[in-house]
Write a structure and sequence with these properties.
The chain is an alpha+beta fold. The chain has one helix at residues 2-33, and strands at 34-42, 50-51, 53-59, 65-71, 75-86, 89-94, 98-100, 105-108, 114-120, 129-136, 139-148. The strands form two sheets. The protein has a seven-stranded mixed β-sheet with strand order 7-4-10-11-1-3-8. A four-stranded antiparallel β-sheet has the order 2-9-5-6, with no helix packed on it. Strand 10 (129-136) and strand 11 (139-148) form a beta hairpin. The protein starts with a helix and ends in a 5-residue tail after the last strand. Bound molecules: copper (II) ion. Copper (II) ion (CU) binds at residues 52, 81, 92, 114, 116.
């Protein structure tokens, strides 16, 4: 009886390990296929509670990459944003998805689509690296973004 239970436990452990290795393989494969160039988060302006980011995402997969959100341990709230201009004034608004077409790249900037971050849980140091966990239809991947000085347009 004990022997049977032990065998069962060993089998369960093996199964769990197999699944975690599979999950890891999938993430690594996605990492190779999704290339994120020059990811940055802009330092917050004095008194501001939100900031944007900039990066270029290359989708080397055969499928559209549909980003439906991202999270960061350094911010309480995050949002996908797009930008439009009303009488020359920049207006940002929430979008549900940002899509990088198959075999295409997409530049995310404060003037177009971008990742928006709200309520940092600590004061950001210029030069420090933040991890953004990006959720997509093809799985999750991390983007390591550097905090850079705010740029005036
Ligand atoms: Cu924004």
């Amino acid at each position: 009886m004990m022997k049977k239970i032990r065998l069962l436990l060993v089998m369960c452990a093996a199964l769990v390990m197999t699944f975690s290795v599979l999950a890891e393989t999938k993430v690594n494969e996605l990492k190779k296929m999704i290339d994120v160039q020059n990811p940055v988060v802009f330092q917050l302006a004095n008194g501001a509670n939100a900031t944007g980011s900039k990066m270029t995402i290359y989708n080397h997969t055969d499928k559209d990459l549909i980003i439906d959100g991202f999270t960061s341990n350094d911010f309480k709230r995050t949002m996908l944003h797009s930008t439009r201009y009303e009488s020359g004034k920049r207006v940002m608004f929430h979008v549900d998805h940002i899509t990088v077409p198959a075999h295409k790249k997409l530049a995310l900037t404060p003037n177009t689509h971008h990742f928006m971050l709200f309520n940092p849980i600590h004061k950001l140091k210029t030069g420090e690296f933040l991890t953004l966990k990006v959720h997509t239809n093809q799985g999750e991947f991390d983007v390591i973004a550097q905090v850079v000085p705010r740029r005036l347009k």
